[in-house]
Amino acid sequence: MPSITHQLAADAAPLMPGDGWTARPSASSGKHCAVLEHPDGRRVEISPARREGYVRARVAYPDTSYDLTQRHRPSTEMRADRFGRALEQAGRARLLPVYDETYPKVLAATEKSHQHAEARAAVADRLVSLVPGAEVIRSEPSRIVEYRKRGTIERVTAQVLGDGLSIVTFRYVGDEATEAVMKAYREVIRRTAPTPAPDSPSGDADEAAR
């Protein structure tokens, strides 16, 4: 038998603004909850409220780097025995105005994070391809390229951060490993450094590589 939250969500789904809203049951913290979902990814969660006989509806966002505050997370409570029209009206008045304004910003921030991650991965992969014996050993929160030579304590770690920043660490490194990593790193810097502005010193990229 559907829970009262699922029944409320199912009644509200065809009334919500914008076609395509659907309802499904959801278990959260052992409670009988429900979710209203739109094909564009927006979600409204309905769960039992602390007050007996009431339910709580709130917006939900995907994992994101966007700085979400309490203002971006509107919610509302209503009696559980209300009909779907009450949930739809609450959604229009209290939830969706803020949600519809914030959700595109969340998606944009997520896409930007993905682009940064791809750029870091590209630099890490380039280093790996140029340094014999190197491999990517961890992908989050930043790419790390590590060089190890069996039989000796020789290790070089390049931690590729965002915004063109990297940290290169040498531990008990032999000349061969040092030269291989630095040669590869200089080439990556030259390939990825932005083109100097007309009034910028022409040696900025080389200086960064050094």
Record field, number of beta strands: 9
H/E topology pattern? HEEEEEHEEEEHH
What characteristic shape results from the CA principal axes? elongated
Distance between the termini: 69 Å
Structure, briefly:
By secondary structure, the chain is an alpha+beta fold. Helix content is 38%, strand content 26%.
Give an account of the 3D structure.
The chain has 210 residues and is an alpha+beta fold. Helix content is 38%, strand content 26%. It contains 4 helices and 9 strands; from the N terminus they run H-E-E-E-E-E-H-E-E-E-E-H-H. It has helices at 4-12, 84-130, 175-192, 204-209, and strands at residues 22-28, 31-37, 43-48, 54-60, 75-79, 134-138, 143-148, 155-160, 166-171. The strands form 2 sheets. The protein has a 5-stranded antiparallel β-sheet with strand order 1-2-3-4-5, covered by helices on one side. A hairpin with a 4-residue loop joins strand 6 (134-138) and strand 7 (143-148). Helix 1 (4-12) packs across helix 2 and helix 2 packs across helix 3 (175-192). The longest helix has 47 residues, at 84-130. It is elongated, with a radius of gyration of 26 Å.
Topology of this protein?
Layout: H1 4-12, E1 22-28, E2 31-37, E3 43-48, E4 54-60, E5 75-79, H2 84-130, E6 134-138, E7 143-148, E8 155-160, E9 166-171, H3 175-192, H4 204-209
Antiparallel strand pairs: 1-2, 2-3, 3-4, 4-5, 6-7, 7-8, 8-9
